[in-house]
Amino acid sequence: LGSEVTVVEMMSGILPGADRDLVDVLAKRINGLMKSVLLNTKVTKAVPEKKGIRVTFEGDGAGEQVFDRVLVSVGRRPNGKTMPGLDKTRVVVNDRGFIEVDNQLRTAEPSIFAIGDVVGQPMLAHKASHEGRVAVEVIAGHKVAFEPKAIPAVVFTDPELCWAGLTESQAEKEGIKVSVATFPWGA
Predict the structure, then answer these.
(1) What is the C-alpha separation between 114 and 98, in angstroms, rounded?
(2) Less CB within 10 Å around the terminal CB: N or C of the chain?
(3) Residue 12 contacts residue 40 (beta carbons within 8 Å)
(4) How far apart are the first and last CA of the chain?
């Protein structure tokens, strides 16, 4: 099935936020499985027709192709601005739609707490679960706060990728000197 699939990515590489050393392993596998991987390419139009869906691209993979099916995945947006009744509280929703909270997950309305994707990055289920636990403990009167040193990120691909803390490229951008050590997991 993979040999019939085309992956289209607007950025210069798949998984732009992940460390390139990790992504290179996945990219090699994907390139071997897929019909094609179009990087630096944007979908500008998708029109249904008798034979399938005609997709138009611009960028490095410019042109048109007809596909049986198209799956669009372009990220998530917080829905803080669309929550009914929130405007009748002191809850602050920022310009991007995220609900602002303190380190105890309390909003500007003292009786309202918020957790998960709607409070900001990273948008990960295990981060939201931990935030939920912290919020419940605060409500129960415990003195706790959500102050993670590093939140692990996982990409459920084959092979799976995971990391925690700064990536090498993030550290370099922030002027943090790093030492890199690698070890083959196969060993």
Answers:
(1) 10
(2) C
(3) yes
(4) 31
What six digits make up the tokens of 76?
Answer: 């998530």
CA neighbor of 105 nearest in space, from 78, 135, 130, 139: 135
Identity of the residue numbered 174? E
Read off the tokens for 28: 């090699």
How far is C-alpha 55 from the geometric centre of its chain's CA atoms?
25
pLDDT in tens, the chain (187 residues): 557 899 999 999 888 878 888 888 889 888 888 889 999 999 999 999 999 999 999 999 999 999 999 998 887 788 888 888 888 999 999 999 999 999 999 999 999 999 999 998 888 888 999 999 999 999 999 999 998 877 888 888 888 888 887 888 888 889 999 888 877 767 7
Task: Reduce the secondary structure of the chain to three states and give it as a string.
Answer: CHHHCEEECCCCCCCCCCCHHHHHHHHHHHHHHCCEEECCEEEEEEEEECCEEEEEEEECCCEEEEECCCCCCCCCCCCHHHCCCHHHCCCCECCCCCECCCCCCECCCCCCECCHHHHCCCCCHHHHHHHHHHHHHHHCCCCCCCCCCCCCEEECCCCCEEECCCCHHHHHHCCCCCCCCCCCCCC
> d(Cα 32, Cα 25) in Å, to the nearest integer?
11
Q: Find tokens 């951008």 and name the residue.
A: 173
